[in-house]
Amino acid sequence: VQLQESGPGLVKPSQTLSLTCTVSGGSITTAGYYWSWIRQPPGKSLEWITSIGYSGTTYYSPSLKSRTTISRDSAKNTVYLQMNSLKPEDTAVYYCNAQDFRDNYWGQGTQVTVSS
What we know:
By secondary structure, the protein is mostly beta strands. Helix content is 0%, strand content 52%. It contains no helices and eleven strands. A hairpin with a 4-residue loop joins β9 and β10 (104-106). The chain is globular.
């Protein structure tokens, strides 16, 4: 499974971030797989943001739930992240991740900088 993140790179405070994770080598509806967005701010550890399961069930970090939406397009085999009301502290490398009980796959990450 290969994951490729894409996004705007630079976003102004209060704006909305939209990221895309394009999946190849496997289907996002494969039973047992969960597809996640995880970020790493500069100098900090990885932070889980949200996940969507193979059946479409969604899960959110409580601290980010109010500003975050995960969605998918099965026909395009793509997972999306939308985050509203961006703040400078949302600056991070954002990763797409796929895992089941055995496998764990990561994209290369995409840098998002929140700055005016």
